[in-house]
Design brief:
Layout: E1 8-18, H1 21-32, E2 38-41, E3 45-46, E4 51-52, H2 55-61, E5 67-77, E6 83-93, E7 100-108, H3 112-130, H4 137-140, E8 141-142, E9 147-150, E10 154-166, E11 173-183
Length: 185
């Protein structure tokens, strides 16, 4: 059997509102553009040599009914005005021949930027720990260069996608999601 290792990946996000919880999730998937796929959630490894592509390129590659691997963060509420958030963060070494980490984060009370930053820090911390490095994300982030500095020569790059929304004013279910979508070709 051939090994299944994704070759490309893209990020997407969405929000949905509906009186039924499941339909709210479906509408969030539609907003993200991945509703036509059979999603299989996977854990947190970003493969070596995997290329990050645009959402438009990724969506154009999907076929209805396709088995699609995703790292998915999702949160929902039916409480009016309650802030919900979902984010997926990526940290990978600058050396593209090494693997990286993808983290998912979901919760309440954070805006999209806060949630995305948290997901990025989480992914960077997980990556650093596999390399035996203690990483304090607040001290390791180089704002000017937009990467993490860990150890003497190890540099990580990171990014995230996040979606936040306030619960619908009429108590409809509000679902937010963020996803890293893996493509095998």
């Amino acid at each position: 059997m051939d090994k299944i290792v994704p070759k490309r990946m893209f990020f997407t996000k969405g929000v949905g509102y509906h009186r039924n919880k499941l339909q709210s999730f479906e509408l969030a998937l539609r907003d993200a553009g991945i509703e036509k796929c059979n999603l299989v959630t996977i854990s947190s490894i970003f493969p070596p040599d995997c290329k990050i592509i645009s959402k438009a390129q990724g969506l154009n590659s999907l076929l209805p009914g396709q088995i699609t691997f995703v790292v998915l963060a999702r949160e929902e509420t039916n409480e009016p005005s309650r802030l919900v958030t979902a984010a997926v963060g990526l940290a990978r070494p600058k050396d593209k021949n090494q693997y990286g980490y993808i983290s998912e984060h979901h919760g309440f009370g954070q805006n999209a930027r806060q949630s995305g930053d948290f997901a990025e820090d989480l992914a960077a911390t997980m990556l650093a720990s596999t390399l035996g490095i203690e990483l304090d994300p607040d001290k390791a982030w180089d704002e000017r260069r937009q990467h993490y500095v860990a150890g003497k020569d190890r540099l990580f790059v990171s990014r995230s996608v996040a979606k936040a929304a306030h619960g619908h004013q009429n108590g409809l279910w509000t679902t937010v999601l963020a996803s890293a979508v893996m493509l095998l070709t």
